[in-house]
Predict the structure.
Amino acid sequence: MRMYDIILKKRRGFELSPEEIDFFVQGYTKGEIPDYQASAFCMAVCYSGMTSAETSALTMSMARSGDMIDLSGFGDLTVDKHSTGGVGDKTSLIICPIVASLGAKVAKMSGRGLGHTGGTVDKLESIPGYKTSMAMADFMKQVETVGLALIGQTGNLAPADKKLYALRDVTATVDAIPLITSSIMSKKIAAGSKNIVLDVKTGSGAFMKTLEDSTTLAENMVCIGKACGRNMTAVITDMDTPLGYNIGNSLEVIEAVRILRGEQQDDLYEVCVVLATEMAALVLGIDANDAKALVLDSISSGKAYEKMLEWVAAQGGDTSVIKDTELFRKSKHSLEIKATESGYIGSMNAEEIGKAACLLGAGRVTKEDVIDPAAGLILGKKKGDKVSVGDTLATLLSDDENSFEAAKNIFLGAITFSETKPEMPPLVAKIVR
Ligand code: URA
């Protein structure tokens, strides 16, 4: 077999066999196929697409390129969730303790943020002492005793994806649906959970900007997960506006704590209830109405909050900052952006707001950048809110006062005002089962 022939066949629009796809994936992972041929292959997929049989074969080859975690000892109780990435998306911090409090076993590996979206691991590292890596035996033990362990992705989980994703990032081949599908699903299949809920974001802050593309991605991922013997649900949620009010690492942990204590009931709360409901329904084999009642009870009774404390303590985190979030280290400087006109917030470009937070120190532009855990921004108003002159639109937080000017300009460029209340997209556009 020659890589040249595989690229040509794909470029001409023919269907590749599972053997040809596996030749590419294993060869590229081992370094036997060079970057330039892998880039040409990805570009050919961008133009010619892939059939569902090809996407399944690509997913399975990528999943098998490294360790496959065996969670079968937990029976059918294991559940994982994945978000395609958004701004202010701290749902994992909230829904994992909720479902663990209901008896699910959550063995979760999460990524770091790059670009305008934040990563769960970076958010958790803002909790002093929280360990985002541990030996596999300790990870399994914690899943058994606490019901929840959340660490960074181990080096050898789907290494083909790690290499390919870095290549796609610099060759303008990220947003091809078969490549996104196989990237996400290879990691989820290798991570071993029986039940998987996907949060597919749609809108200005998401990879998929239209509902049509988000639906295709969701359907592809659900189909592949099922073909691999997993119970799957995908929830398509709005990412036209940032989720919740806080964007930045410790700021997002603080907001997650508020939701778990029942102190905040907004768009973030609603999305979390839907995602946790779908996870509980799959794990417990019950219908969505019964699962929702359990989820609401877990929050209102304090069980979910207690589970968060137990989980953070088990991973070495200092729970005093969870019990009293005022104890989180604060940024040295802050700047309030005031409204100079009145009306309604007509739109909020989530991606641009994510970029402003990044500039303040909350995210990375390159992998080597160091994150400032306290930096970010707190929204004072969101899309659809009425605004009067002088109202606080957002508060910027950073140790670097020099970043304020540019971040403020990006923020102001990301919002528009309107005289009338804008139409609000549904928070949950669709559920694909
Ligand atoms: N998230 C992933 O893990 N992979 C992609 O290709 C896109 C989003």
